[in-house]
């Protein structure tokens, strides 16, 4: 019976590790540093604004990384494109930045 319980535990752990989680951004298990376009074109614009949020241990998340906050920070009134920058270290520390460009 103990052998069956151990085997079930190993199988459950393997299933969790191998399960794919669908996300809108590429995620590295150890380290993530990506830039992902959300909308708009890649042309250069006269103004750029950024707003960031921080996650600690995937338990605490603080900040305002909304499109509105990014536009306000850059003085952008006519948004032409929105991008995301994501940096995460082992799920211990994460920084999520919204970048808006426009005029």
Describe the structure.
The protein has 103 residues and is α+β, with helices and mostly antiparallel strands. The protein has one domain (28-102). Helix content is 24%, strand content 44%. It contains two helices and five strands. It has helices at residues 2-18, 67-74, and strands at 31-40, 47-56, 60-63, 79-89, 93-102. Strands 1-4-5-2-3 form a five-stranded antiparallel β-sheet. A hairpin with a 3-residue loop joins strand 4 (79-89) and strand 5 (93-102). The radius of gyration is 19 Å and the shape is elongated. The mean pLDDT is 80.
Fill in the keyword field for this structure.
2 helices, elongated, 103 residues, five-stranded antiparallel sheet, single chain, alpha+beta
Record the strand order, biggest sheet.
Answer: 1-4-5-2-3
- Average per-residue pLDDT, rounded, comes to 80
Q: Whole-Å distance between the termini? A: 68 Å
Major beta sheet summary: 5 strands, antiparallel
Tell me what portion of residues adopts beta-strand conformation: 35-45%
Helix and strand content put the structural class at alpha+beta
Any idea what the shape is?
elongated
Number of strands: 5
Q: List low-confidence stretches.
A: none
Percent in helix: 10-25%
Number of helices: 2
Count of domains: 1
């Amino acid at each position: 019976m103990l052998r069956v319980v151990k085997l079930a535990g190993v199988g459950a752990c393997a299933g969790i590790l191998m399960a794919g989680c669908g996300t809108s951004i590429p995620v590295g298990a150890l380290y993530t540093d990506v830039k992902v376009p959300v909308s708009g074109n890649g042309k250069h614009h006269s103004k750029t604004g950024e707003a960031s949020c921080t996650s600690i241990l995937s338990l605490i998340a603080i900040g305002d990384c909304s499109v509105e906050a990014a536009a306000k920070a850059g003085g952008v009134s006519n948004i032409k494109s929105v991008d995301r920058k994501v940096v995460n270290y082992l799920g211990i520390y994460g920084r999520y930045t919204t970048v808006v460009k426009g005029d």
